[in-house]
Amino acid sequence: MSVLRFLAALSKIALASLLTGVALSLFNISSEQILQQAGLTPEMVWTYLLRLTGWALPNILLGSMIVLPVWLLTYVFLPPRERERD
Question: What pTM, to 2 d.p., does this model score?
Answer without folding.
Answer: 0.58
